[in-house]
């Protein structure tokens, strides 16, 4: 049990969603430990989670926290202290003015999977219900939108069908484009436990790099970058050839198999080996373990999602589960991992440019009418909103005049930073709502609004397995910091006075629970129905998985156990997807494949983890990982500065020799931005970390950019 000065909450870092117990002394957070009763982690925490309390130390608060509204009177000048009344009025006036002069689509809101569900809900309603624009998108677009589109294309709903307990029940675990050993460490420990308890369990890892997860695998399929679809089609070809498919599941519960069957005919073992670089022997072994070992669970993340064919990659993997009947039963299913703590919650409230509340689709007139009725409006706008890359491109082109950015750092995390920086410079009004004022984006803000953060916030998040957990405040907000939902609510109320005077209020929320209750009502009858849940039940029952409709005693662990999918006819749809090349294949000028990834002890742009020296012990500085063979060819020694150039920019980084990358490939962690690398930019270049190089090309279905692959050339830096 938590002690009197202890508060149960949730880790704010990754999508595993571990429960934490926060210790405090007065108004100071003094410790954190894993919650033994939380079903995600059962008391364990990783290196990031177990040091959370240190990121709330007085020294860090003093150095890094934004504690009062700040206003920049002109671009390039230092911001000056202001107050909430002035900030709220000025922002509301300027947004109303821009909406009236240029139309509501001249405003863009860019939010974050770090926000709580309640924050997300208010922002989404503010944009679509009050301003009248669907220009609200989120950094989750960079993280999981291909998983969303993949699920909807095949299973009919954005709903991961499996759960964490399946790790211990699977006979084969198939990890594709994910490195849980570093990016989802507590899940990986659960996987290690499962392998110890059941030594026969097989682990297959698909990754162009030999990551720590791949090193632990029974079979590492070290594919050529971007060849995932060829691999999945090739495995299906083998399964068909060997008769390892579940003909009954296909006949009774799916549609569209014949077209896919015809397509994968071309993916013979020889051809698949040529396309993927994986031997025919390993292909045959992988197909056998996947299809015949018993129960197969797939885990996948950015390696599939962050791709210009991300949706097709997701769907091609789900095809394998549908063809073999590895879904809807314990220990089996396609299971996308979310990167962020509340990427799922953002999807639930429809906080993306193409979605509406409770997994409704903006393009569906019936769904728009339902949401309008819920909000007491005549309609919500039908014009598709701009997704992340499109939004910053539109701002760079002068179409979007105001950018309101909450809890995220696009001046580091978005691809093609030259365009992003141009957008931030060209927009007439840039509002940045942040807990930490140290981000690259904050330097572009006209208004800096101080937000609360972990240990102070109150609301809910949903983790990768659809489990809703409470986030509770242990200490009061420091300085004048306010909760994100409250900042949005107050500005919304000021805007209402101008945009819909005399009409019933839309944002009458005294507490986050009122917001959540409205969200809950929006889910009634939907696939994620949580009308049987409440804040009070989350207190007594603990975290629950959706759906949990009225009358249910608890949430549901797995979906589709009755073989009925979320499509209109109840049948899952095989996706007949083509194998598409990379957006930017290697060529003679840019002959190296650059991929990006995460480190074990850092999180996103390091605004929080970067405040702790001890978390740099594992990887003290940014480096470019190169195969020793390439190092020798380029006459590089370890530590030599390498000039890395793509079609968009150049970056200088020290070289590190490792055989974790294959020859012809390079890898750079995505955590560092221009705070560290600024001094090393070449004249005329944007020094914005690795995203000075990456491409804004995105998947046409999910609009998720191809952050995982950039064609580059390398050379020893020739510094004066
Ligand atoms: Fe936090 Fe993720 Fe680590 Fe759990 S695994 S403690 S959620 S960072």
Structure description:
The chain has 720 residues and is an alpha/beta fold. The chain folds into four domains: 6-64, ADC-like domains (N-terminal domain of TfIIb); 70-143 and 342-503 and 513-545, Rossmann fold (3-Layer(aba) Sandwich); 147-337, Dimethylsulfoxide Reductase, domain 2, CATH 3.40.228.10; 592-716, Beta Barrel (Barwin-like endoglucanases). 31% of the residues lie in helices and 17% in strands. The longest helix has 19 residues, at 84-102. The N and C termini lie far apart (62 Å). The protein binds iron/sulfur cluster (SF4). Iron/sulfur cluster (SF4) binds at residues 11, 13-14, 16-18, 41, 45-46, 48-49, 184-186.
Work out the helicity level.
25-40%
Return the structural class.
Answer: alpha/beta
Measure the end-to-end span.
62 Å
Largest sheet: 7 strands, mixed
Widest sheet, order of strands: 5-4-18-17-16-6-7
Secondary structure tally: strands: 28
Query: What count of structural domains?
Result: 4
* CATH architecture assignment of the largest domain: 3-Layer(aba) Sandwich
Morphology: globular
Q: Which ligands appear in the coordinates? A: iron/sulfur cluster
Question: What percentage of the residues does DSSP assign to strands (E)?
Answer: 15-25%
CATH class division of the largest domain = Alpha Beta
Radius of gyration: 24 Å
Family: Belongs to the prokaryotic molybdopterin-containing oxidoreductase family. NasA/NapA/NarB subfamily.
Protein name: Molybdopterin-dependent oxidoreductase
Keywords: 4Fe-4S, Iron, Iron-sulfur, Metal-binding, Molybdenum, Nitrate assimilation, Oxidoreductase
Domain 4Fe-4S Mo/W bis-MGD-type: 4-60
């Amino acid at each position: 049990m938590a002690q009197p000065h202890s508060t149960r909450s949730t880790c704010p870092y990754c999508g595993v969603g571990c429960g934490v117990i926060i210790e405090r002394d007065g108004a100071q957070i003094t410790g954190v430990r894993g919650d033994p009763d939380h079903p995600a982690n059962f008391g364990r925490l990783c290196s990031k989670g177990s040091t959370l309390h240190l990121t709330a130390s007085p020294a860090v608060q003093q150095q890094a926290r934004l504690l009062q509204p700040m206003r920049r009177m002109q671009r390039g000048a230092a911001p000056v202290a202001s107050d909430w009344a002035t900030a709220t009025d000025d922002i509301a006036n300027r947004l109303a003015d821009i909406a009236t002069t240029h139309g509501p689509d001249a405003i863009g809101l860019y939010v974050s999977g770090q926000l709580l569900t309640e924050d997300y809900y208010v922002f989404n309603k503010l944009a679509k219900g009050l301003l009248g624009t669907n220009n609200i998108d989120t950094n989750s677009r960079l993280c999981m939108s291909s998983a969303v589109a993949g699920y909807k294309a095949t299973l009919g709903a954005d709903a991961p069908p499996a759960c964490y307990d399946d790790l211990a029940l699977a006979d084969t675990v198939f990890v594709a484009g994910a490195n849980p050993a570093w990016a989802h460490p507590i899940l990986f420990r659960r996987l290690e436990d499962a392998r110890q308890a059941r030594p026969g369990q097989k682990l297959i890892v698909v990754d162009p790099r030999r990551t720590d997860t791949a090193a632990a695998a029974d079979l590492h399929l070290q594919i050529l970058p971007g060849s995932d679809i060829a691999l999945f089609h090739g495995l299906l070809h083998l399964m068909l050839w060997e008769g390892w498919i579940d003909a009954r599941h296909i006949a009774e519960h799916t549609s569209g198999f014949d077209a896919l069957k015809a397509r994968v005919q071309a993916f013979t073992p020889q051809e698949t080996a040529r396309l993927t670089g994986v031997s025919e022997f390993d292909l045959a072994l992988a197909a056998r373990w996947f299809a015949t070992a018993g129960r197969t669970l797939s885990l996948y993340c950015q390696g599939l999602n962050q791709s210009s064919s991300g949706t097709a990659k997701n769907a091609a993997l789900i095809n394998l589960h549908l063809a073999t009947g590895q879904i809807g039963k314990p220990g089996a299913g396609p299971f996308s991992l979310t990167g962020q703590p509340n990427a799922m919650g953002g999807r639930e409230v429809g906080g993306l440019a193409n979605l509406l509340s409770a997994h409704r689709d903006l393009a569906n007139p019936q769904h728009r009418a339902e949401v309008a009725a819920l909000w007491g409006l005549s309609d919500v706008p039908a014009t598709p909103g701009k997704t992340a890359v499109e939004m910053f491109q539109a701002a760079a082109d002068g179409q979007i005049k105001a950018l309101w950015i909450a809890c995220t750092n696009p001046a580091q995390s978005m691809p093609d930073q030259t365009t992003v920086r141009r957008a931030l410079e060209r927009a007439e009004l840039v509002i940045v709502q942040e807990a930490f004022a140290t981000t690259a984006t904050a330097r572009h803000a006209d208004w800096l609004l101080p937000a609360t953060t972990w240990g102070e916030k109150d609301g809910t998040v949903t983790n990768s397995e659809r489990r809703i957990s409470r986030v509770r405040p242990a200490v009061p907000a420091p300085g004048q910091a306010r909760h994100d939902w409250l900042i949005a609510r107050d500005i919304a109320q000021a805007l209402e006075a101008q945009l819909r005077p005399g009409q019933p209020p839309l944002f009458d929320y005294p507490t986050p629970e009122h917001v959540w209750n409205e969200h809950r009502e929006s889910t009634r009858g939907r696939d994620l129905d949580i009308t049987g849940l409440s804040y009070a039940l989350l207190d007594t029952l603990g975290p629950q998985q959706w759906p949990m409709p009225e009358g249910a005693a608890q949430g549901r662990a797995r979906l589709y156990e009755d073989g009925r999918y979320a499509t209109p006819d109840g049948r899952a749809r095989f996706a007949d997807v083509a194998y598409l090349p990379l957006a930017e294949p290697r060529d003679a000028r840019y002959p190296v494949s650059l991929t990006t990834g995460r480190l074990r002890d850092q999180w996103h742009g390091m605004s929080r983890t970067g405040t702790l020296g001890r978390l740099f012990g594992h990887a003290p500085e940014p480096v470019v990982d190169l195969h020793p063979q390439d190092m020798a060819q380029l006459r590089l020694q370890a530590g030599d500065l390498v000039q890395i150039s793509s079609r968009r920019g150049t970056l200088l980084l020290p070289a590190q020799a490792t055989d974790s990358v294959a020859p012809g490939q390079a890898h750079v962690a995505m955590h560092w931005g221009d705070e560290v690398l600024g001094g090393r930019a070449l004249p005329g270049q944007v020094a914005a970390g690795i995203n000075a190089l990456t491409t804004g090309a995105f998947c046409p279905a999910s609009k998720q950019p191809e952050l995982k692959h950039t064609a580059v050339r390398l050379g020893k830096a020739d510094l004066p």
